[in-house]
Amino acid sequence: MSRSVLVTGGSRGIGLAIATAFREAGDQVAVTYNTSAPPEGFLGVKCDITDQEQVDAAFDAIQEAHGPVEVLVANAGVTRDTLLLRMSDDDWDTVIQTNLTGAFRVARRAAKGMLRLRKGRIVFISSVVGMLGSPGQVNYAASKSGLIGMSRSIARELGSRGITANVVAPGFVETDMTAVLPEETQKQYLSQIPLGRFGLTEEIANAVRWLASPEAGYITGAVIPVDGGIGMGN
């Protein structure tokens, strides 16, 4: 049956691949966008997830068009990379407010509708960096590891109502960001990946779609790495 799906930050990259995977499965898919243009073929809802009023307005618009959100993929995120001693308060606050607090805001709003339905799937998009750490990414790593604790707490709170909460932790993925890395840097990253290649956005999307499928109905509070083996269970 077609479900109402929301993918935050779904206008490009991993988010767009996830939204496409759900659409191809027959779901009604809405995506939030902020600075990028909304992709064709989806219900595009302009929303800055750091603003609660905009989050509420986005959910209202989605409910009117598709019904209450049954599957939430909290994917929207930003980076402000720099070394610890050079990292400003604004660098820290911007990343935490978007990646962690923004995910909390959309999950809290989605949970209201899911509780009434007595079912729902929440998937947070974290990163292998949240478990391994990375020089120059103190803020990003903190935000992404925070999603794991948040997901597991939600899983314990809402599991009795038929709502699951899980995390997908991508490794290095072929996106616009990795494409502009210097060749030497790419070689360094590849040397650490047992499978010897970067991941594809579609591979992340497949894992997310599976977690929201009936086959994964007994999985909650889990962290699913899609990282070519670089994390090795961390």
UniProtKB/TrEMBL annotation:
Keywords: Fatty acid biosynthesis, Fatty acid metabolism, Lipid biosynthesis, Lipid metabolism, NADP, Oxidoreductase. Residues 3-176 form the Ketoreductase domain. SUPFAM superfamilies: NAD(P)-binding Rossmann-fold domains (SSF51735). The active site is at Y140. Transmembrane segments: none annotated. Belongs to the short-chain dehydrogenases/reductases (SDR) family. Homotetramer. This is 3-oxoacyl-[acyl-carrier-protein] reductase. It comes from Kribbella capetownensis. The lineage of its organism: Bacteria, Bacillati, Actinomycetota, Actinomycetes, Propionibacteriales.
